Queue: 2 jobs
Job 1
Amino acid sequence: MKKIKISPSILSADFSQLGNEIKKLEEGGADMIHVDVMDGHFVPNLTIGPPVIKALKKKSSILFDVHLMISPVHKYIEAYSNAGADIITIHPEATDNLNLSILKIKELKKKVGVSLNPETKIDTILNELHQIDLVLVMSVNPGFGGQKFIPEVLTKIKELKKIQKEKKLNFDIEIDGGINFENCKKAVEAGANILVSGTTIFKSNNGDIKKNIELLRSK
Ligand code: DX5
Ligand code: ZN
């Protein structure tokens, strides 16, 4: 049984204080930080790019779990690797050749994640599962923090866990979107071992980050 890891999404952080917010996450016991990169094309929102990630990485030692909601994504992978991403997660719909993009990330010696939107089937990545370090299962449609959890994705996680066992693979299963104190236990029971959370970690209990991370992990 894998240890449950918490990857707070900085999308819900105070963007005018990003460096300090990341320090608070590190001190609060986060296992990594989830950096939501959005291009206003793959998703209807625009956030940060390589220069900001590079500046933040210089000030912290925590793992950067970088979720690229950008397309086309292949030609930008190296820039995010150079900026300091430790895990680079891409969406299959954002590349002309998923296999080549996965190989590019591996060539750069980074952990490779592939993200499944709520309507994207596991079949889309079945042939690549053996090369993937992490499957990021979206429990909201990507683009914004603070959205409502889509419970149907728990079935997808259970299916993914079953396939993982059958194929004797060891990728992490990360769930992302609308995770809170009420649904995190179900997500873990379904098979997720990394929980992404933005709103719950930054906004609950008067923004007590340490308490919120501990609560999510302990459920
Ligand atoms: C949405 C992002 C998520 C989101 C999670 O497109 O990929 O990581 O920021 O935020 P909450 O936990 O607020 O749903
Ligand atoms: Zn994300």
Job 2
Amino acid sequence: MTDEGADTREEKSRQAGAEPETKRELHGDGDRARTDKSPRPANVSETATRAEISNYEIVTHYFEEAAERIGIPDDIAAVLKSSYREVQVQIPIRRRDGKIHVFSGYRVQHNGARGPYKGGVRFHPEVDLDEVRALASLMTWKTAIAGVPFGGAKGGVNCHAEDCDQEELEKIARSFMGKVEKLLGPQRDIPAPDVGTNAQTMAWMMDEYGKLHGHTPACVTGKPISLEGSYGREAATGRGLVYLYEEAAGELNLEPESTRVVVQGYGNVGSWAARILADMGCTLVAASDAHGAIRSDGGIDAHALAEHVAQKGRLPEFDGVEQISPDELLETPCEVFIPAALGGMIHKENAHGLACRVVIEGANSPTTPTADDILADNGIHVIPDVMANAGGVVVSYFEWVQNLQHFRWEEDEVNQRLRKIIQRAYGEVREKARERNIPLRPAAYELGIERVMEAATTRGYIHTGG
Ligand code: NAD
């Protein structure tokens, strides 16, 4: 794709009413993220530069390009591009200020040709139908690329999880599940954690579902170990990134001892990837979260930083490091850059600054199409989200299988099986990329779309020709 093409698209999206392309601020509770419709004062203001286009436009762009290259007829592409079902529900919650706050909850089921719908639930103030739609579609291609028997879905509530106490989060989780449970179930649609949600959220959702349907552990994945969660699930997405680092290291002649790592978004995915890489001998030199960014060329103790954040310490206040700006984080020299925060954080304003050899995308849609071209021009190897962060859904698949059998696997077995699936998916995508002489991202999309097409036509959901 040319820069001209990207700019034209961005221009179109601006004309269509999207946010202006120039840097915009991420306000935890600002005007754009003013999602809770109840009256209250604005009280949060964090800065991070974000993309020229939305997550939906990013995913749609990559889908359309791949569909055109494969030669999928427009009418069939329209079926594959749009969602099967989109639901929005009202979530009124009495908060600790004594008032009822009204949030919006979403569940989008994008495509179920290959199996039950599968995808996380996000609690974040920027959640809206467009974002959930984009993330649901990404799940369809991701499960197909990984070869696990699921379709794609996503959910979310536009609440600010960090602002809520445990009681409020529990009310939101239960209310959401109570309103979408008819669409869910082990053979229909299985949620999991994402940004702002975790094993505890899944425990509340499972309990709520169980009140109506009886004890059904397979109705959600990413549960606590004490409630039939799987060993290895919490670390799985980060671990999957590490397995891909091992693959890329072989191709790029990287040795762990001389590999410097930068992590943007030190949450579940980012911190697990950093900890496992550190255990292999890599050095974490910079990290960030919604509160700020830090750097230490001598190395940051990845485990101690994860513990500091888990104890509700603010990441920028970690001892013995230099505080830097979010943009400086991107420019920190390293071998491996791991985006593990939100979508659109590597964009045309900042992509030139990346000083790494490989980007392994932990976050969903972290790179805009224009930024992707810039990274390619700069010789940076990009392992795209749609295959890179599949570790979570792969071990969610294992959790679902274990729950259906009421049988638990050891953590070693989970990790070995995960490694096999990630290596196989990487091998298949790399093979396609070589055959077609295209980068990994378009190759991954082609593979995913072809597999979904095949399932959809074989089961007769869509008919090609005649
Ligand atoms: P999380 O809530 O545990 O962590 C998100 C992190 O991003 C937090 O540390 C948060 O402070 C940080 N963050 C938010 N805004 C930021 C900003 N502007 N700048 C820097 N950091 C910022 O969520 P997670 O589960 O680790 O998910 C992270 C990403 O990985 C998301 O894009 C998610 O969709 C994707 N993902 C997660 C999983 C999973 O299994 N959890 C699987 C696949 C993909």
